[in-house]
Predict the 3D structure of the following.
Amino acid sequence: MPDRNTNMYGATGGVAVTASDSTDLGSTRALWVGGAGNLAVRFVDTATTITLVGVAAGTLLPLQVNKVMAPTTATSIVALY
């Protein structure tokens, strides 16, 4: 599969995300958080999982992650590629 992050001009697609410890999202360009809450993510290069606490509704986060983990309480998340 080609690297979806080679476009330097922004996202070219997106998909709704359901938080899951097992769903692999590939490599995102960013995440859109539509509903406020905590966001637990696993980064692509390090496989490190962190929780971003108190993410506001309507936040665009330029993160390359491959998973949005189950402890996430934020809602209406969209992975952008």
Q: What stands out?
A: The chain has a mean pLDDT of 92.
